[in-house]
Every structure is written in C-alpha cells, then in structure tokens.
Amino acid sequence: MAAAAVLALALAGVWQSHRGALAAAGLAKPITIVVTFPPGGGTDWLARRLGAALQQRMGQSVVVENRPGASGNIGAREVARAAADGSVLLMVNSAFAINPGVYRQLDFDPLRDFRAVFNAGTIASVLVQPPERAVQKSAAEDSATQDSAVAVGTPSLTEALAPSADGAAPAIASCGNGTPQHMAAEMLAQATHARLQHVPYKGCGPAALAVAAGQVPVGVVTISTAAPLIADGRLRALAVTGRQRSAQLAGVPTLVELGVADFAVEQWHGLLAPAATPAPVIDRLHRLLAQILAEPEMQQALREQGYVPGRESAAQFGQLIAADMARYAAVTAQLGLKVD
C-alpha cells in the first residue's frame, strides 16, 4: 500500500512537472488547429493525425476546425488575428505560398503575419493519362517495367504534350486555379516549350476522375488522389513532379529522369502560428511535433499516403515558404494569373 502511494505521488509529480513545462512554454491552453481546406483532403488528414497525437502527448485538448474558402485565405486571415500564444495554429499547404501571387487584395500579409512552426511533410504530384491513350511498348520495355507502377503502354512525355492533329494545344487538368498542381502544369509547359490549355477542376478528385473518363487527355493531381485509380487501371502514370521517385509509385520516373532538367514541384503541408508568438512556444511546439513525426507508426502512415516526412527546423521551414512565395510569384506574374 505504501509503495502504491509512493508511485502515485511520483506519477503526480511527473505530471505536474510536465504541465509546468508546458505552462512555462506558454502552452497551458487548449489548442485549435485551423485547416484551410474542407474535411477529407490530405491537409485535413494530416492536421487530424498530428492533432490527435499532440493531444495525447500534451494531455490537453487539441481541436481541428475547418475554415475553407478563397484557397485558404479565410482561415489564414482568422489565424493571423488570433492570440499569439500557441493556442491557435494554421494548417496549410503550398497554396499558401501561391496565394500572394494570384490574389490582389489579401487583408493579411503571408510573410509578416505568421511564423513557421513545423513542416509535417511533402508530397509530389503525378502526371496522369487515361489508359486508352497508351501506345504499345516494345517487349524490352515491357519486361523492364513489369514490376512498375507505370502501366504498360504509357506514351512518352513528348507524345503526351504534343498538339492534336489539327494543331490544337492539348488540355491539361489540375486541381484548380492557383493550386500547386496548376503551377506544376504551367512550369512543365514552360520547361518543355509546350502549349497546354489549362482546365481547372474543383479539387484533385474531380480532376483525376475527368482524366480517367477521357474528358481531358492529361492531368496533374496529387499522388494520394491518383494512386488508387492507377492501381485499378483507370489511370496511367507518366511521371512524378518531385525531386525523387515516390515510395507509393516507385516505378514511376521523375520528370527529370524523362529529360526535364531541374524540374521539381512538391507540395508541403505544415503548421504556422501568428507572428507575435514567442520563440519558446514555437520551439516547444516544434519539438513535440518532431517527436510525434519520428514515431514509426506516424512515419508509416505518412509514407502510405505518399508523403515524405519533413525534417526542417522551424527556421528552415520559414525559409522554404519564403522561397516558394518568390518562385511562384515569378510564375504567376509571367502568366498574368489572377483569381480575384
């Protein structure tokens, strides 16, 4: 009995010490993670996985709230004006870095109003086609790709981006105006000197289904969206847009492998905090989230969805966001792209 009492007191002391550390870092309040997209997508999935793990690790409430609209600007504006104490975080993806180049009137500053906290991971997109556009490969090619996620008979990149018989530019579907997939399509057109007619859809799901149905000859969608359709034979993968091959589509080459030099468009997913959030709070959150991400179960869950887990420090993540803002601003300026 005495031993049990001592153990109880010891555990209580550990708990109070843990709570004291959280309070010292300014993390004693319940946390709300605002997601800038609707439920069910990859950004929402990541926020809920991280939120649940963070709640378990911290022993306090972590709530995920979806605030979609205007490509994430509605939720971002809300968090920019929230208390800067770590109690409200913003879950975003690379669209956050694209928005300044395509929205003329943002009532917040994406760089000055936020501090980077944690990059959970990145995911590439994949260039896909309907299966009926395939051409027959040689027996040697067939043998070389028998274990590949690239379905046998996939046309070459040149064929995929070639004009039609009447000289018309081929249509290319994306997940919507101003999305990372739209940027990937436009940057691919620039890099290959191809004329492409962009067809925006309201999400990667509708875009992938339109390509699978043959309504559009080629599309750029997230790997997590395309993978099930590729596995079912409803889509054919031509190339991924990342720096390296995806573990989820290991047999699909990168665009660099197909001859598009230095091409890399990857979509990161991470957490931001209001700009005035103290550095100790940012550091504590980053450490907790890095511990969560290092867990084998979390690593496996991310990789199964096609993500490469993030490794950046908070400062490095902030630099990545700033670099992407500059990169995408140059693309949108050249295109004259505005969505408002």
Report a brief summary of the structure.
This protein has 340 residues and is an alpha/beta fold.
Explain what this protein looks like in three dimensions:
The protein has helices at 2-24, 42-58, 73-80, 95-102, 139-144, 157-161, 180-192, 204-212, 223-231, 279-293, 296-304, 314-335, and strands at 31-35, 62-66, 88-93, 114-129, 171-174, 197-200, 218-222, 236-240, 266-274, 308-309. It is α/β, with parallel strands linked by helices. The model is unreliable at 10-22 and 135-154 (pLDDT under 50). It contains twelve helices and ten strands. The longest helix is centred in the N-terminal third of the chain and has 23 residues, at 2-24. Strands 1, 2, 3, 4, 5, 6, 7, 8, 9 and 10 form a ten-stranded mixed sheet that branches.
Top keywords for this entry?
alpha/beta; D-Maltodextrin-Binding Protein, domain 2; 12 helices; 340 residues
Question: Would you spell out the secondary-structure blueprint of this structure?
Answer:
Layout: H1 2-24, E1 31-35, H2 42-58, E2 62-66, H3 73-80, E3 88-93, H4 95-102, E4 114-129, H5 139-144, H6 157-161, E5 171-174, H7 180-192, E6 197-200, H8 204-212, E7 218-222, H9 223-231, E8 236-240, E9 266-274, H10 279-293, H11 296-304, E10 308-309, H12 314-335
Question: What's the CATH architecture of the largest domain?
Answer: 3-Layer(aba) Sandwich
Q: What distance lies between the first and last C-alpha atoms, to the nearest angstrom?
A: 70 Å
Main beta sheet, described?
Answer: 10 strands, mixed
Strand content: 15-25%
Q: Can you write the helix and strand succession as a string? A: HEHEHEHEHHEHEHEHEEHHEH
CATH superfamily of the largest domain: Bordetella uptake gene, domain 1
- Could you state the oligomeric state of the chains shown? single chain
CATH C-level category of the largest domain: Alpha Beta
Write down the CATH topology of the largest domain: D-Maltodextrin-Binding Protein, domain 2
Overall mean confidence score, pLDDT: 86
Number of distinct beta strands: 10
Q: What is the count of structural domains?
A: 2
Poorly predicted parts: 10-22, 135-154
Query: Which percent range fits the helix content?
Result: 40-55%
Give the helix tally: 12
